[in-house]
Specification:
The protein has helices at residues 14-25, 41-51, 61-73, 83-91, 109-117, 128-143, 153-161, 192-195, 200-204, 213-221, 223-235, 274-282, 296-299, 313-324, 328-344, 350-363, 372-391; strands at 4-9, 30-36, 55-58, 79-82, 98-101, 121-124, 147-150, 175-182, 243-247, 253-259, 264-268. With 396 residues, the protein is an alpha/beta fold. Among the domains are: 4-150, NAD(P)-binding Rossmann-like Domain (Rossmann fold), CATH 3.40.50.720; 187-203 and 217-221 and 309-396, Rna Polymerase Sigma Factor, Chain: A (Orthogonal Bundle). A seven-stranded parallel sheet has the order 4-3-2-1-5-6-7, sandwiched between helices. A four-stranded mixed sheet has the order 9-8-10-11, with helices on one face. The N and C termini lie far apart (56 Å). Bound molecules: nicotinamide-adenine-dinucleotide and magnesium ion. Nicotinamide-adenine-dinucleotide is lined by residues 10-16, 36-38, 40, 59, 102-104, 107, 125-128, 152, 209, 211-212, 214-215, 273.
């Protein structure tokens, strides 16, 4: 096994930290070549001290200069850059073998696309990339010979439950449907009348997974599952009607594939993202991830039921955006990023997220997803409109 050089986009986040834990466990196999974060200088400096990357990146020049000075003082030769250009350059760097795409939201699109265009092994956690630009991204993967490995636990489970040559077509592989499991989040049983006034703290307290704040709110609204339906549509080239959401509160079955002969293949495990991260890093091999073995006796039972689309409007909106096609999913994603930020700032009630998303999706016509500029244009327009609606307190 030769040493793999990694660029970690979003190294200070929940997925980034778990990725570095796998690196720490396998020092002869992976090297953190570039560590990239937004503004957590202290945390990135600590990571630099431990992993001694060749490069580090922060949002702006002032933060980068601060980190550069600290690295020098500590005797590290890490070179610190800043901004999107640095992220793009390090995702496509000739010495990089694999890129962990773990930035949250639209900010990850350009560097992740650059990794695909450079033919890298792309380990994708940043689902918003596929929601915004699924067609463009998958074309880049195909045309540049990149290897796409899904890190999102459901998509990783589906990937593990499909034959290796699934790219020849799901129907040709005998797939009847994809069963995308969802925990249902912290508000699965909250009376609808109480949902209006739930707090950001309640929304971020996920019953089974510990994650960044944006995805935690998305899980509470089930927008996360909607984004994942769109993500599955692109990774597996699956028609939307083939993708069924199954609420499974224990989060032990991470997703499944149903075949025409009656077989259902699933991947099970404890809810720990280091399993799909390690799988994506080592594929086609398997390596230890520090995850406790699943104890079926203590799990004891597994429950499954239909999602409540009236309670979780956002899930339906994702299917609507997929049906509309073109830039509609990018519009929905942008509206949702603004809505979640406004909810976390207490400028929008929880149910306002779905109302705002629906209003923006309905107000803006979807165009073709021809180029990156088309996607970024739709994204900017939807952010502007959503921001205006928040400022006017339209859904407060
Ligand atoms: P997080 O908020 O914990 O971390 C986000 C990371 O991205 C941080 O390192 C931050 O510094 C960086 N970042 C944010 N904005 C940036 C910008 N403009 N430029 C550069 N870096 C930026 O988020 P997370 O929970 O780790 O999630 C990351 C992605 O993975 C999301 O797309 C999420 O949907 C997906 N995902 C997460 C989990 C999970 O368990 N946390 C599971 C499945 C998928
Ligand atoms: Mg997921």
């Amino acid at each position: 096994m030769t040493m793999q050089n990694l660029t970690v986009l979003g190294s200070t986040g929940s997925i980034g930290v778990s990725t570095l834990d796998i690196v720490r466990r396998h020092p002869g196999r992976y090297r953190a070549f570039a560590l990239c974060a937004h503004s957590q200088v202290d945390k990135l400096f600590e990571q630099c001290l431990e992993f001694r990357p060749r490069f580090a990146v922060l949002r702006d020049a002032a933060l980068a200069a601060d980190l550069q000075a600290r690295c020098r003082a500590a005797g590290l030769d890490t070179e610190v850059g800043h901004g999107v250009e640095a992220l793009v350059a390090l995702s496509a760097h000739p010495e990089v073998d694999a890129v962990m795409a773990a930035i949250v939201g639209a900010a990850g699109l350009e560097p992740t696309l650059a990794a695909a265009r450079a033919g890298k092994r792309v380990m994708l956690a940043n689902k918003e990339v596929l929601v915004m630009a699924g067609e463009l991204f998958m074309r880049a993967v195909r045309e540049h010979g990149a290897t796409l490995l899904p890190v999102d636990s459901e998509h990783n489970a589906i990937f593990q439950s499909l034959p290796p040559d699934f790219a020849r077509g799901l129907a040709a592989c005998g797939v009847r449907s994809i069963l995308l499991t969802a925990s249902g989040g912290p508000f699965r049983n909250t009376p609808l009348a109480d949902l209006e006034n739930v707090s950001p703290e309640q929304a971020c307290a996920h019953p089974n997974w510990s994650m960044g704040r944006k995805i935690s709110v998305d899980s509470a609204s089930m927008m996360n599952k909607g984004l994942e339906v769109i993500e599955a549509r692109w990774i597996f080239d699956a028609p939307p009607e083939m993708i069924r959401v199954v609420v499974h509160p224990q989060s032990v079955v991470h997703s499944a594939v149903q075949y025409v002969d009656g077989s259902v293949l699933a991947q099970l495990g404890n809810p720990d993202m280091r399993t799909p991260i390690a799988y994506a890093m080592a594929w086609p091999e398997r390596i230890a991830a520090g995850v406790e073995p699943l104890d079926l006796f203590s799990v004891a039972r597994l429950d499954f039921h239909e999602p409540d689309l009236a309670r979780f409007r956002c899930l339906q909106l994702a299917y609507d955006a997929l049906a509309a096609g073109g830039t509609a999913p990018a519009i929905l994603n942008a509206a949702n990023e603004i809505a979640v930020a406004a909810f976390l700032d207490r400028r929008l009630p929880f149910l306002g997220i779905a109302r705002l998303n629906e209003a923006v999706l309905n107000a803006l016509p979807a165009g073709p997803e021809g180029s990156l500029d088309d996607v970024l244009g739709a994204d900017a327009e939807a952010r502007r409109l959503a921001g205006q609606m928040v400022a006017e307190r339209r859904f407060a």
